[in-house]
């Protein structure tokens, strides 16, 4: 009988590729296209059935990034494309979702993004994505007054492309002992508009955090900020639509700085 549940696929993959790993299994949660488990000191991430082969691509990317970034990323123990399973040793720290980032995190993140965006896109096997703001609006849902703002004057697409994480929300930033300790879930990495990697940190942590990230990154301009703000606003509405309170609560809070004219009494 084929294994269809995420847990069944995870257990079978670990039994085949890491038979030395034992212990109780715990559920670490899920995203739109994956579910993650922990067994022993191993994180086992199971992707959607229609994207099983992508784990090999992500594993290859992670092995390259581990040698180029000044922050830990998952280092694959194994990738099982038949089952859509990627496993790696647990990184230190907890996700910043719903938490205040430590002092200095913005500077650290800006430097890491400068390293990432300086990487040769031709050296990695990831898709190229246009990140056209008009395409982002096509299926976006949310409060009509906020959608009206976004539709009124979307920024033009960027000409530049860099290697980007492309889903750098608080849930993918780990922190402990007053500093960032890792960046996880690189499944959406793409050669795309660099503004995407600033949008979710802005959404999750606010304007002062964004300012500090950009200072450390070494780049700022009105056009760049305009794209960052647009993508941050879209990302907030996406999290509102997702429905999970762990995401909707921070997204609702972010509306006060992303759409100030509509939320100020």
**Overall 3D geometry?**
globular
Helix content: 40-55%
Q: Separation of termini?
A: 59 Å
Strand-and-helix sequence, N→C?
Answer: HEEEHEEEHHHEEEEHHHHH
Largest sheet: 5 strands, antiparallel
Count the DSSP helices: 10
Structural class determined from secondary elements: alpha+beta
Mean pLDDT: 95
Number of distinct beta strands:
10
Strand order of the largest sheet: 1-2-3-5-4
Which stretches are poorly predicted, pLDDT < 50 over at least 5 residues?
Answer: none
Return Rg in Å. 19 Å
- Amount of beta strand: 15-25%
Describe the structure.
The chain is an alpha+beta fold. The protein contains ten helices and ten strands. The strands form three sheets. Strands 1-2-3-5-4 form a five-stranded antiparallel sheet, with helices on both faces. Helix 6 (196-205) crosses helix 8. The chain is globular, with a radius of gyration of 19 Å.
Keywords:
265 residues, 42% helix, alpha+beta
At a glance:
It contains ten helices and ten strands.
List the topology elements.
Elements: H1 6-17, E1 25-30, E2 34-39, E3 42-47, H2 54-65, E4 78-80, E5 85-89, E6 94-95, H3 105-117, H4 133-138, H5 144-152, E7 162-164, E8 173-176, E9 179-183, E10 190-192, H6 196-205, H7 207-217, H8 222-242, H9 245-258, H10 260-263
Antiparallel strand pairs: 1-2, 2-3, 3-5, 4-5, 6-8, 7-10, 8-9
Helix pairs in contact: 3-7, 6-7, 6-8, 8-9
């Amino acid at each position: 009988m084929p294994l269809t549940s995420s847990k069944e696929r995870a257990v079978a993959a670990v039994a085949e590729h890491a038979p030395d790993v034992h212990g109780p299994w715990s559920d670490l949660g899920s995203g739109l296209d994956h579910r993650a488990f922990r067994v022993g000191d191993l994180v086992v991430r199971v992707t959607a059935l229609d994207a099983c082969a992508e784990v090999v691509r992500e594993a290859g990317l992670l092995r390259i990034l581990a040698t180029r970034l000044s922050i830990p990323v998952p280092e694959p123990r194994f990738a099982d494309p038949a089952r859509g399973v990627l496993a790696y040793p647990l990184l230190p720290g907890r996700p910043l979702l719903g938490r205040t980032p430590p002092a200095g995190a913005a500077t650290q993140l800006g430097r890491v993004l400068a390293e990432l965006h300086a990487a040769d896109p031709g050296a990695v096997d990831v898709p190229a994505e246009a990140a056209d703001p008009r395409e982002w609006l096509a299926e976006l849902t949310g409060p009509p007054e906020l959608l009206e703002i976004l539709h009124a004057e979307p920024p033009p697409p960027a000409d530049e492309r860099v290697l980007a994480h492309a889903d750098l929300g608080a849930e993918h930033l780990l922190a402990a002992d007053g500093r960032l300790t890792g960046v996880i879930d690189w499944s959406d990495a793409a050669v795309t508009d660099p503004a995407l990697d600033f949008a979710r940190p802005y959404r999750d942590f606010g304007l002062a955090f964004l300012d500090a990230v950009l200072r450390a990154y070494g780049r700022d301009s009105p056009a760049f900020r305009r794209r960052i703000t647009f993508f941050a606003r879209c990302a907030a509405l996406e999290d509102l639509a997702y429905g999970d309170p762990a995401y909707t609560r921070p997204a609702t809070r972010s509306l006060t700085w992303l759409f100030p004219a509509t939320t100020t009494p």
